[in-house]
Every structure is written in C-alpha cells, then in structure tokens.
Amino acid sequence: MEFTKTPGWLDxxxxxxxxxxxxxAGAVDxxxxxxxxxxxxxxxxxxxxxxxxxxxxxxxxxRDHLGFARNVVVQATCHGADNSAMVDALAHSNGKARGIxxxxxxxxxxxxxxxxxxxxxxxxxxxxxRLVDFTPKDELMEIxxxxxxxxxxxxxxFEAQDLPxxxxxxxxxxxxxxxxxxGRPDVTQSVxxxxxxxxxxxxxxxxxxxxxxxxxxxxxxxxxxxxxxxRDAYVDVVPFARRIVxxxxxxxxxxxDWPHPNLKNHMPDDGLLVxxxxxxxxxxxxxxxxxxxxxxxxxxxxxxxxxPGAKS
Length: 312
Ligand SMILES: O=C(O)/C=C(\CC(=O)C(=O)O)C(=O)O
Known about the structure:
alpha/beta
C-alpha cells in the first residue's frame, strides 16, 4: 500500500556523526521505534500521523554506528495494536532487541504468550491526546493484570499537566511502571517548581516506577539543537534529566527515540544526541547504570549480572 506522509513530516537524519562519548560496553538503546516499511507492514487505519518508513535494518545500522549493543523497540501509535513490524524487528535481531507492545482488551492469552516468546516484555499505555483515542481505564487495568502474570511491565506516556488526574490509576498498576520522556516536563518552568516536584514525588512514593530520561529534542524550547557538531545541545533539559538520574540512579533508562516521530522544528543528528548523555549522567557509574545495568535488569533479567555492590 502507498502511504503519503503527514504534511510537514521530518524524516530521520541520514548520516549521523560518530558520538564523541563512548558508550559503555553492552549499552541498550531502550526507546526506539520501527515504522513499516508501509508496503510490508501497513500503518493502522486509526493512526493520527503517517510517518516516513524507518525499517529494522536501518535501526540496526544506527545501533551499530552509535555503539549500542541492543534495542528496546516500542510500538508506535501509527501501527495501532498491530505489533507485526515491531515483532519482525525482534525476530531479526539475533536476540539483541526486546519489545513493548500495544494490545487491546480482546487479545488472547495465546497471543500474549506468542508476543512473550518473540521478546515482548511490556505494554504501552498512551495518554497523549494528539496520538491516541481514549481507552477506558478499566480496560487498561484489566490488561495490566493479565500482562503482570507474564512478568511484563507497563510503559506510560503522558504530559506533565495530566499527572494529577492519572496519579491514582498509575498508583494501582500491579507491575513495574516506566514513564516515557520524564512525563514530558515543561522545561520553561523551574526544575524546582511544583509540576516537576510532583513527578519526583510520584517516583519517590512508588518504588516500582522508573523513568526514561529521553527526548531532550522534543522537550527543549531553547536548544541549541543537536546539529552541526553541537555537543552541548538542549541545555534547558539537562537539569531535569540530571535530577532524575541522580535521585533514582537504579530506575532510569535512556534511548534515542529514533526515528523521532512528530518533531516539527528540526531532526537531531543521533550521534550528537548520544553526546547529551554525559551531561545528565556525569560519572561512569551513573552511565553504566543508565545504559547497561538498568535496561538489562528490566529487559534481559536472565542475563543480568549485578555489578558488585549494586542493588539487583
Ligand atoms: O516517540 C515517542 O515516544 C513519542 C511520540 C510518538 C509516539 O509516542 C507514538 O507514536 O507512539 C510523540 O510524542 O509523538
């Protein structure tokens, strides 16, 4: 099927630079997507955007170029609850990719088991209104109860202003819970302000809650963008990500968010984006936890060997 991209769509950055920051051995890109290719894996009729293609082979080439060892491929809303493009990527990864699926209430236990065998380890609940239609909370809670039995976790995507309304629902989730993109803070507000304080309080009060310290390119308002050799990009996001990494070093993940859906302003050079990491995880120990120990514990627990003295 032929698809026409959403007007103004920005394609992923071709020919990214080599990061200057050397990723630790075994680093995991814990948030990225595949799109199509649309001809092979058609986009969902209920989608809110139509992206460019971003295939598994292109994702794996980026992984190797940047120096990551593994990927966590997150089902993007443009594929709805048809997880086949994501599952196909896992199947061709030589065990180097795990996945986060989108499922609906009608999913059978057999389908969940097949997703598990393919390498899926969680589901994503998306509350960003421009991306999805509303799903009733009782349906989501029912799904959470079912996937808990597989040892999976729930990834939640929401915007900071919606946390008060979602607080009770999130608190009741029976699994580990991973917040996407720090709950999308408004970085024009103070890092010590009430909105971000609520996110920190939520993590403090819920030891099962993790956060991805991802997407500075989405959250930044003053840049500078990760382009043209800029290795100090998105400085307005640094205090927020750094605060989470330092307070919750064992519950943070990092990912590229390649191919960066729905960016309006610019498309980052992913090599320069990797150079953002040492600004938010400033010691080798914090970097190892963020990039290796934490994602391995969550996604490849059967292979994870805790570093001496580290909490497992
Ligand atoms: O890439 C992301 O994580 C964020 C997205 C897209 C998305 O979540 C999706 O399509 O599933 C966004 O803010 O547009």
